[in-house]
Amino acid sequence: MKGIKVSTIFSVLWFILLLSRIYVISGVYSFPIDPTLIQIIYVMGIITLSLVVQKEIFMSKKNDIMRAVIVLFVIYWVLFGFIFVNPVMKEYTNGMVQRQGLFLAVVIVTVSFIKKQNLFNNFVRTSFSTVSLVLIFQFFTNISDVTKINIFNLFNTETRSRVNFGLGHYNNLGAICVCGLILGSLIVRLKVAKKKEKSIIYCLMFLMLLMLLGSASRNSVTGILIFVLVEIYLNLEKYALGKIYKNFIKIIIVMAVFIIGFWGMSGISIENLLIESNRMTLFSVALPTFFKSGRTWIGLGLASGEIYGQNLTSYKTYWMDNGYIYTLITSGYIGAIIYTLAAVLLLWGIYKMSKENQLGKIIMGIYIMYLFGALFETTLFNGGVVQNYIYIPIFLMCTSNKFIKKMKNIPIRK
């Protein structure tokens, strides 16, 4: 296109889309334009851009893991949004169909376009810029929250204090901060940032870390720790250590991941932790309701976690803050099988990339962190959380054979 670069047009469209999604999902959207319309304009804009610059809309017909996972996502949406609809849940399911449908449309056109136009770095940089702008604005317009931060009681269930800097739930803020930290790390390690720019990125990452600690989101904080540990585990081979020492370190890391994952560094028993976080009801209420429903193969019906949590449905479940159990209960064994297959395919594709280059190891760390996070929030492939608009396109890109080959010889900072 003459005059304006394709990458610039994409960046502007993605910036607007992601900015709106952050504020909508945070529950504080106040811009004078319908956010659904923004999603539609974005999708149509990327399709139009695709037709203009590459004369086609869809991805290559070559079969690879990326294509298979996208097909599974669409099958899940069609089955549980239109076919296996529970009549008593139809009103709530319609809302989920729209939300998840638009989310999938955004992800599919984004991945297709950045793959064809080699805009992976551009996607990462624009996403980081958008998250940074939001967090800077929220930090300075809610500066008084800084005085309430107490990092020393972060994992103390009785005395911890939490702030949200005006971004809705504390865990939502934590997830956004983690996205920013991950994206900033990727930019630096992809070696696409100049020296002065890296200094700015580090300052922004410090701000994100401060806001993350202020959120006191144990899921987000422990997720970052697990990301770091997984990366160390995957990179042990580059160190000049004996096999016995490496194996010992690997065992220590695995044990540390389990300790962090199950205890959350809280110092209380698993049972008390489940009770304190209102997750014991998954086993005492939600799952028994599911097994007695007579809909174990197709689920109770698609509806948001908020709808189920407030018991607005015909089924008593309370909050289901676990992405895997939420998937099982809402879409049954069939839905759980579809999403499990998608998760395993993504894991396999990212694993293959981790054997090829350093970027694959980084993405593997992010993916393990992502799967861990779904144990405590309904985030698994869900269009209702900010991080999925960033992570899912990255995961899908890293399962593309073409992308893996392209990135094989690109130097990545270890």
TrEMBL record:
Name of this chain's protein: Lipid A core-O-antigen ligase and related enzymes
Keywords: Membrane, Transmembrane, Transmembrane helix
Domain of life of the source: Bacteria
Membrane-spanning intervals of the chain: 12-31, 37-53, 65-85, 97-114, 126-144, 170-188, 200-217, 223-241, 248-270, 324-350, 362-382, 388-404
Lineage of producing organism: Bacteria, Bacillati, Bacillota, Clostridia, Lachnospirales
